[in-house]
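hey all, quick one before standup. I had two proteins in the batch that finished overnight and I want to keep them in one place so we stop losing track of which output belongs to which input. First protein below, input sequence then structure tokens straight from the run.
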Amino acid sequence: MSEKRRTLLIVEDDPALQKQMRWAFDQYETVVANNREEAIAQLRRHEPAVVTMDLGLPPSPDDVTEGFRLLGEILALAPDTKVVVLTGQHDRENAVRAVGMGAYDFFAKPFEPELLSLTLDRALRLYDLQQDNRRLKIQQGSALSGVITRDAGMLKLCRLIERVASANVTVMLLGESGTGKEVLARGLHELSPRRNERFVAINCAAIPENLLESELFGYEKGAFTGAVKQTLGKIEVANKGTLFLDEIGDLPMPLQAKLLRFLQERVIERIGGREEIPVDVRIVCATHQDVKGLIQAGRFREDLYYRLAEIVVDIPALRDRDGDAVLLAHAFVQRFANDHGRGSMSLTDDAVQSIEQHRWPGNIRELENAIKRAVIMADGNCITADDIGLNQDDSDEGLQALNLREVREEAERRAVVRVMARVNGNVARAAEVLGISRPTLYDLMNRFGLKKEIST
């Protein structure tokens, strides 16, 4: 099977030149955009490593304003993407300006396809090298080393965190309680250019409403009874760094308006003060609540949501991460055994089975607490299901699903049943849908004791 072609985004409003470029660069999977809005949509959809773009774009093709606006947005949304700018023959000033903003290179029109192809190839190689270096840093135990997973969805999420960390955009982390939102928020900070500045976290649900405003924005001496000195708020303390607003869904409406003003103006006023104080801080927020449901219920401002959710990261629950519960459990056993001087400890088979069967409504936090308690309470060096003490009433499958032959046969049986029902017992049609011959289908039906008149 041939290797999947890499994606090249071509931003060009001239249909003839679009066609020429698609023909010249047929080694890529080319996608095109005619204007800035289409380019951003294609960027989000395809995440191309390399982009070529004309600076003169609609609605004013003779002006470079729209082109530079698009260049800035691409570099903000996908800072590792390599942008090759195409300019007029005598437009060196704008070409240099584009490179100064962060474009990889520039070419004057009309260009030689062979030369531009070499530049695109070098840009792609540089992009791949940077991605490999970033993955290597992660594997060597940097910012996301605390994320223990083999689940494909979580690995993809970690790659997303790596990509957006260097972009100065607000990030909203969504997930159930205990899924590791603060771990990922710290990872965003540590992978960002702000890593040497402060990471400041505040839980909006843990502080009484009448105190939360002063915690966030600070206050001047004498602003209220007990304000005996000037005190900086969390936003100001996090200046140049990252502010993590946990449980943002619990932020009171009056403070939502004040936070929105800060996000728009990037200045704050302390309580009791009149001075506007500029603050440069990256906002990362998190919540376990359905924010769009809160908006519909009138409990969360829609305009604030769009300011906070430039990038949204959905964190899967532990029960949806295949194999991760046991993987994490082994790691927690080792950690807590070392912390409590218990020596070498391990999980018994029944303990592993109980961990696999449990639904973990409290996610990683619940698992961590259960293993910590079991390490402390276990009589010997082996941790049993009784030591963990999980309620198995909510389990829906056990170790019966670990035998590959049984898994395969059950999957085949269910597929045959569903397809035969869908085609109303037509064996020829069912064999076609299943991609097998009719004799093979008859063999499967006989093996599973199924009759032609199958129903679900």
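OK second protein, same deal, sequence then tokens:
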Amino acid sequence: MTIKPNMTTDGVLTADTHLIQSFADLNLLKQDGARTVIVGAEGSMVRDSEGNDLIDGIGGLWCVNVGHGRKEIIDAITQQLTQLDFYSTFYNFTHPTAAALAEKIASLAPGQLNKVYFANSGSVANDSAIRILHHYNNRLGRPNKKKILSRIGAYHGSTHLSIAMTTPAYSDGWDHAEGLVHHLKSPHFWREGDGMTEAEFCDSLVQDLKDNVESIGAENIAAFIAEPVQGAGGVVMAPDGYHRRMAAVCEDYDIKYIADEVVTAFGRLGHFFASQDIFGYTPDIITTAKGLTSGYQPLSATIVSDEIHEVISRPGGMFLHGMTYSGHPAAAAAGLANIALMEKEQIPERVRTTGKLFENTLKGLSDLHIVGEVRGSHFMMGIEFVKDKATKQGFAPEDAIGLKLARAAQKRGLIARPLGNILILSPTLILTEQQIGKIGNILRDSIEEVTRSL
């Protein structure tokens, strides 16, 4: 990893004043030292413009599953661009690479999820799922069956529609599609389950779903959307059996179940898809992105059941939805090469061991004074910090505890993602046991350092 002469830190930061970063305090970014310039990457590591090698503890952004710099994917993209740089999948057009990737995804997806719509982000994948279901209900003569059930703590994207499905905290000061989405209770047992056993808490969540369906009317509800593990809402795992039971209720009321696997699919939890293999339910739609290409190209997929596709493909209607870059040849080539690499190296199978080691290593930090809960699964983990373990009292926003911990970790060679009082870890899936141990040590030292300063 070498830095080009024109890629000095000062040069990049000067140019960067024209760039608007995502989910950032733009005022804070005006201050000296607020931004980190990443100039190179290889394997599980990245390098900043000052020459520091850092463990990529957030995997780019939940997405660089197979690691950085994989020649197999880079070569596949290059070869595709020399053969067919671009053609659309509008109207009657297709091309071999998009067709092959759709076929491969259908072979990996559970149940009868055999039809694939490509876009370029998880947000658009979720938008597409809703637009498809609204059209589906229109074609069935059910124009009122449009409302969407989501959950407090969910994250489904940041377009005008997908942010409406996301937990309300992410819309503070921003507008979103009004009147369409209703949020059910958070499935976070540690925070919300006081006085109940986990089984009782699960019962209450299922009852909350039933109560809301009865109140809104099943005839008005198109779908329930849920991440198998909530990601940007704090890495929250629902109680055991939750997804199976919620799916059963949805089926009873003729409400479609959308599994947002933008983060959980393609190996992060040890399987290509988590919904059926880990949580025991088969949704009507799966949305995915991120690990689909390991971030090497922007690509998402909305995977729908044969039953839904049969309705929307009946005579007498048009599929009036489309993105110019849907199924882009280079992105599809990246997806095919990424999946082939995962299968060849048995990365999902390896994650079942190394991911569990990572999970247990982080859970070993629970003895520290300010660590309230370590939660998540395999290579999708969150650590929540508290002032008082007994009362679970969190730190005030002005304490910026997550940011302080992220900075302390980065100083020691690890990139972690701060989210209020939470630190999120979603590294590449190719970490060695030695690297996992190093991450555990860096986090422990960082937490102890910040604790002493409080």
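Flagging for whoever picks this up: The CA atoms of residues 75 and 334 lie 9 Å apart. Residues 433-453 form the longest helix (21 residues).
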